[in-house]
Amino acid sequence: ECAKCHKKNLENGTVTQFVHLEFEKCSSCHQDPHKGKFKQECVQCHSVESWHQVKTAAFDHNATQFALKGKHASLKCEQCHPKNPKEKNPSGDLGFHIVRYKQCKDCHADAHARQFDGRRDLGACNTCHTENGFVGSTYSALQHKASRFPLVGAHNAVPCIKCHQDNKVQAKSTKQFHWKEDLVCTACHQDIHKGQFNGKMTNGCETCHSTDAWDELKFSHDKTSFPLKGKHADVQCAKCHKLQNGIPQYTGLAKECNQCHEDQHVGQFAGSKGTLCEKCHSEKSWKSLLFDHNTQAKFVLTGKHENVKCDKCHKETILKNKRVIKYKPLESACVDCHPAQ
User: Fold this and answer.
1) Measured between alpha carbons, how far is 308 from 39 in angstroms, rounded to an integer?
2) Cβ neighbours of residue 278 under 8 Å, at least 6 residues apart?
3) 154 within 8 A of 94, measured Cβ to Cβ
4) Model pTM score
């Protein structure tokens, strides 16, 4: 209507003004809905046919404060700027004008369910991603070394998906990247020892193992309550640490000789404290005897008895259905060995 432009601006608002009106620029008559965001003239994007008919070919988005790079360059305008002024745009505002756009999360949902909010950069996406595509992270092994869990040893060869798995976080198909608990070995690895070493490991699993290889042990049996000496040092681990319920038994093992070794004397030396093999034998060799007949037996060897061979007195016999050498009890009277002449 004429009165929209020719208003009563003269003679105290009583006379309609027809000449000397400013109309060189759109802004002479129209309020700038972009509030000065664009420095170019309105006609570069719009025409007098319709405000909503935008000359997209002539419009240079890179001249705005949000240059279109990577995947953003292939988007259709209406994907960010809805035609319906009552429809919400990605930043949550209504209509064409986007207020929040400086951070990725202003328009994009957090695919990681806020797992990185605690970082120094507050979870900035560009730390790991670029505008060229979400899939394909720029996060490097060097950056991982600066994380709470540096990758060392065999961990360097582990595929990312082995640790960062799906369905661990309550969000749509996101992977786990943040752990609240301490990153000890058992946070990812099952304890194959089934708690046998709980409370005994001063440095967790690394007390005995390293990240270079599981089989490379730092374990020293000498620091246990059963140091390996003599012949025991040559015995294979599995000889003593046998499977129990499918796992090798390492703790709670008896240390008495007869728990592993068969009593060759079938109980002849058993006492109130069991059979104390170490009184006569050592770990160097079963045949290396520590036995002293004069201090450990009731029959002291003196005189001619000193030169008598053992088997002259200690002969083979059957005890408990087994052929063994009899050591005790033996008769000790002279006539028991020397018949009357």
Assistant:
1) 121
2) 257, 290
3) no
4) 0.60
